[in-house]
Amino acid sequence: MLAPYYHNKLIEAGCDEAGRGCYAGPVFAAAVILPKDFYHPLLNDSKKVTEKNRLLLKEYIENAAISWAVAKIDHTEIDKINILKASFKAMHFAIKALKQEPEFLLIDGNRFMAYPNIPHITIVKGDGKYASIAAASILAKTHRDAYMKKLDKIYPAYHWGTNKGYGTLDHRKAIAEIGLCKYHRKSFDILPKQESLFPNDDLR
Q: Does residue 193 belong to any structural domain of this protein?
């Protein structure tokens, strides 16, 4: 049973990201302000919800939320500032885009770069504990999945329509066969290691 809120009398926004560990594409983040009495029996950490139910929840959350926003940081920015900072930056953009300013932030995870003038708390596995964080995880995940499915039409060889850019076996095989494309995160160590043509060269 997810907790409906952390502070009963404050306007809270739950925040979460999707795509942090992917080989390719942007990292997405969502911020969601829910009514205090919000409830949906399927709501949970997005990783524990089927794709079909995530899409049902996406529509329900977007209609029922007091305010919600989704933002992304692309692969080039990730390579410049690193994935952790990019995740925080995406969360900041999502928070800034909310139509109502929250008074308190619930952040999934154990680290966060403080948002100006709004206090926060970090909650490990918060997407399985608080409704607003779970809702943010659903929106971040569904919006990112939809984006990766669009990229899959441009680069079908990487199977992003199914793996969404994660380092699955089919994705790794495609990288080994055809290399990286412009949407891959070059700062990630994802190219397969090539064996030396002369393994005993140091003995020569």
A: no
